[in-house]
Design a protein that fits this description.
It is a single chain. The protein has about 425 residues and is of the alpha/beta class. Helices cover about 45% and strands about 20% of the residues. The chain has 14 helices and 12 strands. It binds nicotinamide-adenine-dinucleotide. Nicotinamide-adenine-dinucleotide (NAD) binds next to helix 7 and strand 7. Nicotinamide-adenine-dinucleotide binds next to helix 7 and strand 7.
């Protein structure tokens, strides 16, 4: 089965469990599942590098899932595997995340099926701005606010802001995750990874895992994985393995995260990092450790490798890294899973803080952003944990239940 189907099936499975527990009627389920709008566009760009001078077309998507609680909100992904099915599932997940952390947004997701590494900077800017031209009628400060995701970054958000401003005036709040110089939020870049680390530490403490005794393995050393690694290392956790798309590195003694960052910066990959031995991305997931943090792509833990996972705590920094069958296998063995809609919600929470600062034209200091983030994440975690304990269910089921109830109530109150 391809990844797109696995994501949709996984999402549908978790939702159906929650719908059944909440005894929702068929029409309510349909309202909660269906997208408000699904947009697909073709983006033409002339590629001029490597001796080429040829017009190419790329497929772009934006799925606006639900806006009962506020404007659509969600990232833009530039990755070769992007397709409508994947974007639909990720857009839905954004609706549950924003509801879970109780911020006044709905859920959306978008992206372009492209390997951004194959375009030079000028081509990437052209592609992004053309995509923005096509999305301009449906995005907006109070309509739909994109943000970075895999393969996109503050620079891409700056290009979107520039393009959108040409026809709508300078509206910094139309995107979040911008460079700080253009109204970005101090602390936004590290917010998702920082939040992952904060919640990992909280969950580990409840499992009586101390930082000194806990070996951590992280798959994916991009924005989320690297900042989770930095914060966890600062808290005293031993990071024994890291990976990127090219493969992983392992050291039983622990990896110095600042050296790993410097090596990645110099060489473009983690492989060859001094003092480590190579490990494949598949082997890395099965290493002996206390905490495993998948922070790359969807469906990396499936029924094929779930029984080989040795971690006691799995923290879903990535979106949907564990399929529903693997989820059941892990739970049966007593593995605790911090689900994506809770574990990586720090990203959209900081995006909300950025949007608020833009609307008020009043920037906050990084310390204030991160302390508010930690406080809100802690209280969200406590609410989910309390419900899970009260109803004897796992954290994911409790998180979905809380989020769905909030969206369903908003739909009912608004009367559509
Ligand atoms: P990124 O592009 O910055 O980093 C992705 C990392 O994963 C890179 O190290 C890349 O080399 C690695 N990778 C890519 N393909 C891989 C593969 N097949 N096997 C192993 N590693 C692979 O992306 P990011 O922003 O860090 O996002 C990572 C995950 O976190 C995604 O699932 C994303 O949806 C989710 N997420 C991101 C944010 C955010 O604020 N950036 C917020 C919430 C959730």
């Amino acid at each position: 089965m391809d990844k797109k189907c696995i994501c949709q099936e996984t999402q549908r499975h978790f939702l159906n469990l929650a719908f059944n527990r909440l005894r929702l009627e068929e029409t309510q389920r349909e309202l909660l599942l269906s997208s408000f709008r699904e947009t697909r566009v073709t983006i033409p760009v002339t590629l001029r590098h490597n001796g080429e001078n040829r017009l190419h077309t790329f497929q772009g998507y934006r799925v606006q899932h639900n806006h009962a609680r506020g404007p659509f909100k969600g990232g833009l992904r530039f990755h070769p595997d992007v397709n409508m099915g994947e974007i639909q599932a990720l857009a839905q997940l954004m609706t549950w995340k924003t509801a879970l952390v109780d911020i006044p947004f709905g859920g959306a997701k978008g992206g372009i099926a492209i390997d951004p590494g194959k375009l030079n900077e000028t081509e990437l800017e052209e592609l992004t701005k053309r995509f923005c031209q096509k999305l301009a009628p449906i995005i907006g400060v109070h309509d739909d606010i994109p943000a970075p995701d895999i393969g996109t970054n503050p620079q891409v958000m700056a290009w979107i802001l520039d393009e959108y401003s040409k026809t709508h005036g300078y509206r910094t709040a139309v995107v979040t995750g911008k460079p700080v110089e253009l109204g970005g939020c101090a602390g936004r870049l590290e917010a998702t990874g920082h939040g992952v680390a904060h919640l990992t530490d909280k969950a580990a403490a409840e499992m009586s895992l101390t930082p000194e005794q806990s070996r951590v393995v992280i798959q994916g050393f991009g924005n989320v994985g690297s900042h989770a690694a930095i914060t966890l290392a600062n808290k005293g956790y031993k990071i024994i393995a890291l990976s990127d798309v090219h493969g992983g590195v392992y050291s039983e003694k622990g990896i110095d995260i600042s050296l790993a960052l410097a090596h990645l910066h110099e060489t473009g990959a983690l492989s060859g990092l001094a003092g480590t031995s190579p490990v494949s991305n598949d082997e890395l997931l099965e290493l002996p450790c206390e905490i495993l943090i998948p922070a790359a792509l969807e469906a990396t833990i499936t029924c094929d490798n779930a029984d080989a996972i040795q971690a006691k705590l799995v923290v879903e920094a990535a979106n949907m890294p564990v399929t529903h069958r693997a989820n059941d296998q892990l739970l049966q063995r007593g593995v605790v899973i911090l689900p994506d809609l809770l574990a990586n919600v720090g990203g959209v929470l900081a995006s909300y803080y950025e949007w608020v600062q833009n609307l008020q034209q009043f920037p906050w200091e990084r310390e204030l952003v991160l302390s508010r983030l930690e406080k809100r994440l802690s209280s969200t975690y406590d609410t989910v944990r309390d419900l899970a304990q009260e109803q004897q269910i796992d954290m994911r089921s409790a998180a979905y239940e809380l989020a769905i109830k909030r969206v369903e109530r908003a739909i009912r109150l608004r009367g559509f």
